Amino acid sequence: MASLPTVRQLHLNELDPKRREKLALLFKHAKLTGIDGAMLASALDPSLRPSLILMNPPFSRSEGRGVDQFAAVRHLRAALGRLAPGGRLVAIMPDWFTTSARLSKIYDQTFENCTVQTACRLARCYHKQGTSVPVRLYVIDKVPGNIRPAILARSNVAEIAAAVAVVKRAVGPCEASPIYARQQTKPGTLFKAMRTSAKPPAAKPRVIEAPSISPLVFRSLATPRPLGEQAGVYLPYRPSRIDIDGAKAHPTPLVESVAMGSIPAPVPEYCPSLQGRILKESLLSEAQLETVIYAGNAWQQYLPGLFVPADEGVALTLAEDGHSYRKGYFLGDGTGAGKGRQIAACILDNWLAGRRKAIWVSKNESLLEDARRDWSAIGGMTADIQPLSSWKIDQPVPFREGILFVTYPTLRSQRQDATRLKQLLDWAGADFEGVIAFDESHEMGGVAGGEGARGSKSGSQQGIAGVMLQNHLPKARVLYASATGASEVNNLAYARAAPDRSRDRARSFRLPHQLLHLAGGPRR
Question: What is the pLDDT of residue 420?
Answer without folding.
Answer: 94
